[in-house]
Fold this sequence. Notes:
Helix 7 runs antiparallel to helix 12 and helix 13 packs antiparallel against helix 14. It is globular, with a radius of gyration of 20 Å. It has two domains: 144 residues, no CATH class; 152 residues, no CATH class. By secondary structure, the protein is mainly α. The protein contains 14 helices and no strands. 70% of the residues lie in helices and 0% in strands.
Amino acid sequence: MLSRIAESLFWIGRYVERADGTARILDVHLERLNNLPEFQQERISRDLLALVGTHAGPEPVSREVLLRTLAYDAFNPASIAGSLSAARENARRARETVSSSLWEGLNTTYYGINRHRQDLVGAFGFCHWVLERSAVITGLADSTVSHDESWLFLMLGRSLERADMTARMLSTRDLLSGGISWVHMLRCAGAYESFLRNSGGSSGDRNAAEFLLLDRLFPRSIVYALRDAEDCLAKLDPSSQRVGFIDDARRIVGQARTFLEFHRTDNLLEELPEHMDRVQKAVAQASEAISLKYFNQAKELEWIGEVS
Length: 308
């Protein structure tokens, strides 16, 4: 597979998942913002922008600025519109590889972005629409793309982005300070019903945190997403070595996953910021290692000339 095609497929997976994750974060926090005084809205809005890597300037960050930046700004790759636009552009570049159904799904989603009201009321509907369109796109990819290398790069991008977005959600300052309940956070990850069935009626902040971090069967938990990424990397480059791994990305992802799975503590909530920071760094390092291995063009050959 050409490196440019592999790179486009990888980023389709990441951008669609990024749009989905950002929509989930906005959906949970917008209702809270609507019931808070302006000074608290300003603080939380700044926190949410920082959460997705967008740093606000000295000017006030109103609820309208938050919506424009995280939902509708097509030139911001961290926004919903920017992510979906970038996913569609990458699909256009890999048009000979992606299925017609997947392309049409991304194209239809792209042209539907501007059909929504860009205010608070419209934002709720927009977030739910994005979640539905992301599910449609994921389903089309699952059912119409051969599960070969193309599929593996799509799933690799999606899994890494999912681990990163869940880590960002769990590192929300309001959550750590008790300003937002774990019920809201579980709903944000689409995990509330699964958590209730799994917990057998027991609840609590620690149980919810463990579920979103460590559950091996829930697809949006960090451990599950990292394991999926690790499986994709293993299939893309099977290792016959008897000792260690040459693949830097697989090593980085594997170390992050095993640390979470085998680390046990009575102070999980206190250690949560440290764990989430470790996961985000691991995802960034793994993404860089994948880029160096699979996407960067080979160095240009140097002309030596004849030896006289």
